Amino acid sequence: MELISIADVRAAAEDVAGTVLRTPLVPALWDDQLWLKPENLQPVGSFKLRGATHAVARLDPATRSRGVVTHSSGNHGQALAYAARAFGVPCTVVVPEGAPEVKVTRMRALGADVRLVPPARRFAEAERMVAETGATLVPPFDHPAVIAGQGTIGLEIVADLPDVDVVLVPVGGGGLGSGVATAVKALRPSAAVIGVEPALAADAQESLAAGEVVVWDVERTYRTCADGLRTNLSALTLAHLRERLDGIVTVTEDEIMAATGRLLRDVRLVAEPSGAVALAARLFHSGELPTGRTVAVVTGGNADQHVLSAALAQV
Question: 59-79 pLDDT, tens per residue?
């Protein structure tokens, strides 16, 4: 299976430059070896804008004019809706029932046609929409252009902290980890890129141990509060992670919520639970991680009010 290259990531950086915010590294005042990469500051509140923008930009104009379709619990759907609107093309998002209302509302506000379906039906419904409309499927992670777009985060990390030793990246479907690891390992080979996922949705850890994609059903993955990390890996992302990821750790629900609260209180960053798992690893599992200058990617901030209130209550 062909993996993306650093050249692909650099090409993606050119495509997304006019749409995506170049986020800074924010130092953690309580830890002089830790910086945060706040992708929650993107216009749609998450890193997903990078991959979605690059994927839409790579479509030829005739194909793009027929529109784009995806399946998403919210962040990728918002990102694709934003990118589609920028290019003036229609966008349909198939959303699993139970997705955070704040994400569904924002997708609609960005002009997306939102279709709510049972979680187990979202992939089939997206494929049906593609067959019915002639639109292009832009999946949340299982696509080389999406992976390359997410990898631009790694380019920025190494540019801003050339002597970075550790990069902590949340893992759901694996597109972000695949892209970031590609960029970081090419530019800073000595750095370790470590994936982080909820213990209640630890299919990526199990897949890496097994050497093949291990699928957890929705009844298992939907137990975690980190709704953006409930997706299983694909063969493409597993191939990238096996080749380029240096390890993976899991965090508990209480640790995720505590990290979410820590970001709110001490860094003034609004993070959704999925966006706080990398920090949770640093706060509660430092003994399992390599030492040195560490960057934790805060992937998104699209959280409902009750989630943020619960997070603050744990601080």
Answer: 999 999 999 999 987 889 999
Q: Which two tokens stand for residue 270?
A: 């609004």
Which helix (H) or strand (E) covers residue 65, if one does?
helix 61-65
Q: What is the pTM of this model?
A: 0.93
Of 150, 140, 314, 141, which Cα lies nearest the Cα of 225? Answer: 314
Quick one: angle between helices 203-210 and 235-244, nearest 10?
70
CA–CA gap between residue 207 and residue 241 (Å, rounded): 10
Integer angstrom CA distances of residue 112 from 59, 62, 70: 19, 20, 10
- pLDDT tens-digit profile of 236-266? 999 999 999 999 999 999 999 999 999 999 9
- Amino acid type, 249: V
Active site residues: 48, 73
pLDDT of residue 119: 83
**186-189 LR contacts (CB < 8 Å, sep 24+):** 186/5, 186/6, 186/9, 187/6, 187/154, 187/155, 187/158, 188/158, 188/162, 188/163, 188/164
